[in-house]
Amino acid sequence: MPKGVTDIHKIRKGLAVAIRNSTLSASYVALMTLPKQKSRVIHKLCDYDPTINIEKIYLEADMLFEKMKDRANKGLPLKTIDFFYLMDKFESYMLDGYKANQKLTKANLKTKGTYTINDIGGTLINKTHIDTEVGNIKNHIRPYLNFIRDKEVVSLTRKDWDRVRNIIAKQDGSNSSKNKRLTTIRNVIRHAIEYNLCDDNVFIPQLKRFQIKTEIPQDKIMTLDIYERIRDRAKEKINEPINSNELTDAPIKRSQRAMFYYWILYLANVSHRTWDGGTENTIPKWSDITPKWDDVKDDPNEQIFIKRPSEKKHNYMALTLPRLRTYLKRIENIYQARGIKTKYIFAQLQNQRNKKVGDSCSYRTQWINLMNELGYVDKSKGKNKDGKYPITFRPYDLRHYFITIRMYNMEATLTKGDLKTFATQCGTSMRMIEEIYTHVLQDKKINAKLVKNSLPLKYNEVDIFDKDGIFVKRVKKGSMAHRKAFRDYPNTNIKP
Questions:
Q1: What's the mean pLDDT in 273-287?
Q2: Domain hosting residue 170, numbered range
Q3: Same domain, 315 and 438
Q4: Are residues 34 and 115 in the same domain?
Q5: Among 298, 439, 465, 476, which residue's Cβ finds the most Cβ atoms within 10 Å?
Q6: What are the C-alpha distances in Å from 384 to residues 72, 249, 348, 381, 388?
Q7: Residues facing 15 on adjacent strands
Q8: Cα–Cα dist 411/442, whole Å
């Protein structure tokens, strides 16, 4: 019998209630025999009071016993699990993951790397994540939350979390920075649930975000004229002379330039975000096309969507414009001409460093070079380490361009219901669509051109291709030009 314990009353197997006496006081305690525990666990219920309703004590002990058994079976700590304990565990996870990622080669990062906890699939933990998440905990969260220290995280209420938000609201920094602190709080709890560090019924606070100015600055808007200049220059570069030291790879270089051009067209014709090469679930694949690509590529009446699994915490079907079908067929033709089979819509055409033919690829360098060539750079900020100025437009701005086209397509009726559906198909909220895009007004002349650019190409016409599978032009189906293209390059052109 434990020292100082008297009046033991057995409630059921593994559980008893007793009185524990000390020098100055006495208390009711629960005596519990729990799974995976070598010794009996003693837990104080309340101070001793001879007038108390003992049946309530027994009921409380029984509820506690079930909770502690569940924790013991899951391997959770039996002591109080407070938010500070969870912050320590999350901080260790991030720091250890970052150190582990630094030791891995690029080839092993995808399969053996440690990922962030905020998204399914997440992104590989890097220095930016450490500065943001760990920095938020050390500087803006842990020092200010003593009022919930030693309080069971599962017992924290909406009122507690509202108080946390009010504390963050009074801190220095922009509203965007404060929103990141709220996100860190949620990530701490997500991590705890995913790694069984707390009871799975813990409340994940839906803290109200701080309002930020979301309008796109006028000088950052990718207008129709800017988009067309970028698109047309990328197209011109396909047939420009190849450097003398690259002549042996000339067909591949041309194909790579063509793929970069179609990458621009792809991003301007779909509603989803650009993707990170280190995040497998966000890289567009042929299998993401819905309905199945082989079933719809020759059906102009079938609307195409792109599956987006867990992109920025959204699972949705991304909207596409009608011309995307044509661009996808041209991309497919390049692969067929080179005998490449790949699951990715944009893939390597040749072996490079840690990349093999058919692996996913990135066009970040080509985009930066194109922005510098066209003068879309911010010289006021000085040059980067690579000797180039920061670019004005990111690939992400092609998504802004797509949403602008869709919103101001005169055939689209954007009532509240339509706008909500449209926002869902873009993987965002109606509020963000309204705040960011509704101020980007176009005059009627430009609007009419936007509509024209979003319409499908004529289906009494066909694409003709050269021997490398690169698109040459559209001609009337069965015309002399069509027949000649098929006669010269039957492997890359359809039969008239």
A1: 81
A2: 83-194
A3: yes
A4: no
A5: 465
A6: 54, 31, 27, 9, 5
A7: 12, 32
A8: 15
